[in-house]
Amino acid sequence: MWLIKRQEIWTLTAQGWALFLIVLAGNLFFVIQNIHSFLAVNSPIKSADTLVIDGWICDYALEQAAGEFKSGSYRQIITIGSKVEQGFYLAEYQNFAEIAALTLAKLGVPQDKLIIVPTPSVTKNRTNASAVALWQYISDKNLPIESINLLTIDAHGRRSWLIFSNIFAPKIPVGIISAKTKNYDPQKWWSSSEGVRVVISEAIAYIYAKLISWKL
Predict the structure, then answer these.
(1) Number of helices followed by number of strands (H, E) in the chain
(2) How much is the pTM?
(3) CB half-sphere exposure, 55, CA atoms < 13 A
(4) SS3 for 174?
(5) In the beta sheet, which residues pair with residue 153?
(6) Positive or negative: CA dihedral 214, 211, 125, 198
(7) How far does the chain reach from its first CA to its final CA, in angstroms?
(8) What is the tens place of the pLDDT at every residue in 84-118?
(9) What is the number of other CB atoms lying within 10 angstroms of the CB of residue 32?
């Protein structure tokens, strides 16, 4: 008998389990309804003098970028981006920063307002590498930048904002503009395989970036 003992434990009643499941379902519904708007954040700095473009974004997002530049009070627009990974040997331009800049020029952005900052080739943490490369370029060239707005695509916005803010703070404030996607309905992202893939992967990547930033 000394190998076993009698012990009382507390457990939920049927009503308790029902209430627990209702609360859990309510929280899950809230997360599903709001996670996309949380990730695809828009918080631009109204007085920003520089617009930074994530060069890998698609053409319709670059159209939004051109419109933002023309409607704002920006002095310059900087495109960033890594090496083209597919069709590299056939492409005239070798990185997304160049492709984005020349596309913006075709969309009416004056070429003398465009600055191209390629991102070094890396296998991971590309957003961080882009932020570091841009910071290094600004420092080396002594560019008189007061604040920037970073424009990227959709649910990538929250993570990019976090990473760029960590690199540029406290010297240069960073705002964020998340261009709207056309690949799925943001209000019903869960009804599309593309929406599920993007939102879940970006949510995981944001949590990872947040954890890394806490350790620094």
Answers:
(1) 6, 5
(2) 0.87
(3) 29
(4) strand
(5) 179
(6) negative
(7) 54
(8) 877 666 667 778 999 999 999 999 999 999 999 99
(9) 13
